Amino acid sequence: MADLRTEFAGIKSPNPFWLASAPPTDKAYNVERAFKAGWGGVVWKTLGEEGPPVVNVNGPRYGAIWGADRRLLGLNNIELITDRPLQVNLQEMKQVKMNWPDRALIASIMVPCDEESWKAILPLVEETGADGIELNFGCPHGMSERGMGSAVGQVPEYIEMVVRWCKQYTRMPVLTKLTPNITDIRYPARAAKRGGTDGVSLINTISSIVSVDLDDFSPQPSIAGKGSHGGYCGPAVKPIALNMVAEIARDAETYGLPISGIGGITTWRDAAEFIALGCGTVQVCTAAMTYGFKIVQEMITGLEAWMDEKGHRTLADFQGRAVPNVTDWQYLNLNYIAKAHIDQDACIKCGRCHIACEDTSHQAITAMVDGVRHFEVMEDECVGCNLCVNVCPVENCITMQPLAPGTLDRRTGTPVNPNYANWTTHPNNPMARQAAE
Ligand SMILES: Cc1cc2nc3c(=O)[nH]c(=O)nc-3n(C[C@H](O)[C@H](O)[C@H](O)COP(=O)(O)O)c2cc1C
Ligand code: SF4
Ligand code: SF4
């Protein structure tokens, strides 16, 4: 039986599934039930400094986009950090940690970007018995306009400075939560590492406007006719998160830095992908908000079943296994050739593949043969782009089939070269030509 126990930046949890800092982790009532449902850890809803708590809007704070079946694909929010008093949160955290000693309890923190503020809050958090802290350098709305959240996360020098303070003033492991609202995620990750962070977590939410009401022309969610950008999350952001995780996992400067993966994780498979790209734990928010705490049970049993099937005994057996396979475009093998193939028995003759290929790709799929609707790939035109696979409504009806080395590629009239060759040495590449000369 697969063993899901994790030790991440010195923090132990019975499984890698943590709830991300957000409404599901806002209070003891929630966190207690989350632990009962099986979550391995939680990152408590972000704490602010002592004093009057922040004030949230009193109207809608969420916007969304849905798939055709009304399944939630992307969630947008304009919520701030916790609006409960600091002392109430700290007392509850202490009690929860006492009740659940085997679970990871991480305190997310966001205070003004000055040394005194960080120095003041860290002992209070440490006193709760929390296993670690997560520095919220991610929120893109509300707090960033006050010089916190992503306003810090977008300046690597500030990240390094604050992480250094935290490492100086607490013995707890420090996780640095990064904002995706930046051009190159490697710079903030490197800065966090320079500051001495024990790990990074990403992604926080993406700045977004999800929709505009076409009657009153207000962005959604609308507060008395006005909207502001919010933070986007849920299944729609997973590809962005995976890429950012991979960038950090394969960067020479941050290689080996513990990563807690966040962004759109809804199923065990999503989690396994993040782990394969190097993550030691994963964090979930939108999926829990959409389907409830018990969703973790499917994540646990699904991951265990897959690991058993594949012979992975522990997470370490496959953690990071996909990292060496992430490369830059110029190193892709230009001698690899694949062609689309349509399974005629599975095809429902809808014609989508033909339209897509005909209008926007390479005119490589028939529409009619002998006056009958018939969709077939013409190998001498197919460039192997994969568009038809993605628009076909029937799963596995169209598959990409690699041509074996030596086989004739009927599009180019040349046999498939068995040797790996990439753009860096291609004769059409002016840089390669210059190097050869
Ligand atoms: C309503 C809401 C409130 C959030 N509040 C916080 C917060 O206080 N601190 C924080 O670090 N992240 C916060 N987040 C971001 C989540 O922790 C997480 O990074 C993000 O939602 C991506 O994960 P997901 O796609 O699983 O939702 C919030 C997200 C949502 C939806
Ligand atoms: S792989 Fe691309 S070129 Fe080939 S049939 Fe499909 S859409 Fe057309
Ligand atoms: S899109 Fe798929 S199902 Fe539709 S015609 Fe093409 S192969 Fe057949």
Structure description:
By secondary structure, the chain is an alpha/beta fold. The protein is 29% helix and 19% strand. The strands form 7 sheets. It has an 8-stranded parallel barrel, surrounded by 7 helices. It has a 4-stranded antiparallel sheet with strand order 5-6-14-11, with no helix packed on it. β5 and β6 form a beta hairpin. α5 runs parallel beside α6 (186-195) and α8 (268-276) crosses α10. It is globular. The protein starts with 5 loop residues before the first strand and ends with a helix. One iron/sulfur cluster binds next to α11 and α12. Residues 20-23, 45-46, 75, 77, 79, 81, 108, 136, 138-139, 177, 204-205, 233-234, 237, 262-265, 284-287 line the site of flavin mononucleotide. Residues 409-437 are annotated as: Disordered. This is dihydrouracil dehydrogenase (NAD(+)). Its EC number is 1.3.1.1. Belongs to the dihydropyrimidine dehydrogenase family.
Please give the structural blueprint:
Elements: E1 6-8, E2 11-13, E3 17-19, H1 28-37, E4 41-47, E5 62-66, E6 72-77, H2 86-99, E7 104-109, H3 115-126, E8 132-136, H4 150-153, H5 156-169, E9 174-177, H6 186-195, E10 199-202, E11 206-208, E12 211-212, E13 219-220, E14 230-233, H7 238-249, E15 259-262, H8 268-276, E16 281-284, H9 286-291, H10 295-310, E17 338-342, H11 352-360, E18 368-369, E19 372-373, H12 387-391, E20 398-402, E21 408-409, E22 414-415, H13 430-436
Helix pairs in contact: 3-5, 5-6, 8-10
The structure holds flavin mononucleotide (FMN) and iron/sulfur cluster (SF4) (2 copies).
One iron/sulfur cluster (SF4) is lined by residues 342, 347-353, 375, 392, 394, 397-398.
